[in-house]
Specification:
The structure holds 2 protein chains of 2 kinds.
Chain A (H helix, E strand, L loop, with lengths): L10 E10 L25 E11 L4 E5 L6 H8 L7 E6 L14 H11 E4 L3 H4 L6 H11 L5 H14 L16 H12 L6 E5 L7 H18 L2 E5 L3 H7 L2 E6 L2 E7 H6 L4 H8 L3
Parallel strand pairs in A: 3-7, 3-8, 5-6, 6-7
Antiparallel strand pairs in A: 1-2, 1-4, 8-9
Helix pairs in contact in A: 4-5, 4-6, 5-6, 6-7
Chain B lengths: L1 E14 L5 E14 L3 E5 L6 H9 L6 E8 L2 E4 L5 H10 L1 E4 L11 H12 L3 H14 L16 H13 L5 E5 L7 H16 L3 E5 L3 H7 L2 E6 L2 E7 L1
Parallel strand pairs in B: 3-8, 3-9, 6-7, 7-8
Antiparallel strand pairs in B: 1-2, 1-4, 4-5, 9-10
The chains are: A alpha/beta, B alpha/beta.
């Protein structure tokens, strides 16, 4: 199967699966929402996610919701090559015109795809930022990896990005460790979009921030989406974040998709028992 | 030409978390709407008016039946259409205006009104100019234009809600109680705005309890009772 056809997708994912341990042929049949478990009773292997398929369109925001351990972060980390998928395929339109399964590319090509075509914002700024570099240095790192070597233009772009993400430009040469949590998160976002990626992953980016800072980070993400038209996959356990940002939503439970649909439909007319429970738990 | 044709539409809510309780929302709905027609949807609270509208907009998933919509690109069944097709229609052709304003927080009133226009009109200042004209016509006090609608009164929110729905001149407008909580003068302004859209070819499905609004606005009424169409009458 090739990802290449006439549809207008930017990212196409099929049967993405990650299993830890030594699964046998029954592992996938004995785990999932119907068993309320992602641990195989026979082999004790853990199905972090299985059979995840979706298309993401250019400029679209896709939300992934689910409880802790449902596999939300695993999905984006597999697509960002932070870990290796057990099975499945993904195609990215700007890479070889969507004709090559990016999950099976060499390490060198994966680095190219990640540096040129993707951005990632982690829940913990320490995962996305190098705390030994200044905030400007972190952005420069991403720009250099994406093939920009001109010092002057790197500095200009870094200060433009910090301005855009409302980090005081005069703190460009300070290390993120001296920043507040919200500021660290905004530096991380500036770094993630430095290479103008068509695709941005956001993994629980507002979790742990207090509400006013959360609001600022969300407003920033929404603005970036509107102004730059970046397609995003937003992972969150918080339905109000999903409601604010995403056009479509996928609900995960025990590593499987139990429901997917338009975000307003998921929130107002959820079909699956688990989605109904999730929505009814909304404050 | 029929712009909407609804055949045997039913909606059953299955509440898994309440021991699989079933609630019947709509049963065997049949009706069609011509292009440029304004149809009033009436009936008691709980009779299924908003459910029907939400099924058309796909906020609710119909349980059975079909909703055929004559889109610019051909006839499409809104019950079965793929999510991306629905997103495209919402962006370009079909607008839904709910009973209550539900907006992204911390966005000024003018930009809330412009939201859909920003997607097609690249010149933001031109979009804002149109929004301001509309807010002026609707009599929204000038000092509220750059404020956040969350803090507005019911009538002020209602005007923002209507303005943002009609500013992009959709082909189909689904509008729920557009004149509730408005004074008589503003009510007339809103009705005139919707009639102006009708003149430009927009088809409108409008829920209302207000006899004056129905009298002035609609070509035809559909009365819902217990999720079924009770009787169609001319306005």
């Amino acid at each position: 199967m090739s990802g290449n056809n006439n549809d207008n997708w930017l990212l196409r994912v099929r049967n993405l699966t990650k299993i830890y341990g030594e699964p046998d042929e029954n592992t996938l049949n004995l785990t999932g929402p119907e068993y309320n478990s992602n641990i195989c009773p026979a082999t004790e292997s853990i199905v972090a996610c299985a059979d995840i398929s979706f298309d993401l369109y250019p400029g679209e925001v896709l939300g992934i919701v689910g409880e802790s351990g449902s596999g939300k972060s695993t999905v984006v980390r597999l697509l960002h090559f932070d870990m290796e998928a057990t099975a499945g395929a993904a195609w990215l339109r700007p890479y070889a015109d969507g004709g090559i399964n990016i999950l099976q590319e060499s390490g060198q090509k994966k680095r190219f795809i990640r540096n040129y075509l993707m951005g990632m914002v982690y829940q913990n700024p320490r995962d996305g930022l190098n705390f030994r570099f200044s905030s400007g240095g972190n952005i420069a790192e991403k720009l250099i990896m994406a093939g920009n070597f001109h010092v002057g233009s790197i500095r200009d772009r870094a200060s433009m990005l910090l301005e855009k993400t409302e980090v005081p430009v005069r703190r460009m040469d300070d290390r993120p460790s001296s920043f507040s949590g919200g500021m660290q998160q905004r530096v991380q976002i500036a770094k993630a979009i430095a290479n103008n990626p068509p695709l941005l992953f956001l993994d629980e980016v507002t979790t742990g921030l207090d509400v006013s800072v959360q609001a600022k980070v969300l407003d920033l993400i929404r603005e970036l989406q509107q102004d730059l038209g970046i397609a995003m996959i937003v992972v969150s356990h918080d339905l109000s974040v999903i409601r604010m940002l995403s056009d479509r939503t996928i609900v995960l439970k025990n590593g499987r998709i139990v429901e997917s649909g338009l975000t307003d439909q998921i929130l107002q007319d959820p079909q699956h028992a688990y989605s109904q429970l999730l929505v009814s738990s909304l404050l | 030409m029929n712009i909407l044709e609804i055949n045997d539409l039913s909606k059953l809510f299955r509440l898994h978390i309440l021991n699989n309780k079933k609630i019947e929302g709509l049963r065997n709905i049949h009706f069609s709407m011509k292009e440029g027609e304004v149809v009033g949807l009436t009936g008691k609270s709980g009779s299924g008016k908003s459910s029907l509208m939400k099924c058309i907009y796909r906020t609710y998933l119909a349980t059975s039946g079909e909703i055929l919509y004559a889109s610019e690109a051909g006839v499409i069944d809104l019950v079965k259409a793929d999510d991306h097709a629905i997103i495209a229609l919402r962006k370009n052709e079909i607008t839904y205006c709910s009973q209550f304003l539900s907006v992204i927080p911390r966005v000024p009133a003018v930009d809330v009104v412009c939201e859909r226009l920003f997607r097609v009109e690249k010149d933001k200042n031109e979009a804002r100019r149109q929004a301001k004209d509309m807010l002026r016509d609707l009599g929204l006090p000038l000092e509220l234009w750059d404020a956040f609608p969350v803090t507005f009164s019911g009538g002020e929110q209602q005007r923002i809600n209507v303005a943002r729905a009609i500013i992009s001149r959709p082909r189909v407008l689904l509008i729920d109680e557009p004149t509730a909580s408005l004074d008589a003068r503003t009510k007339d302004v809103v009705i005139d705005m919707i009639l102006q859209l009708k003149k430009q070819g927009t088809s409108v499905l409008c829920i209302s309890h207000d006899e004056y609004t129905l009298e002035r606005l609609v070509d035809r009424r559909l009365n819902l009772q217990h999720g079924q169409i009770a009787g169609a009458a001319l306005a």
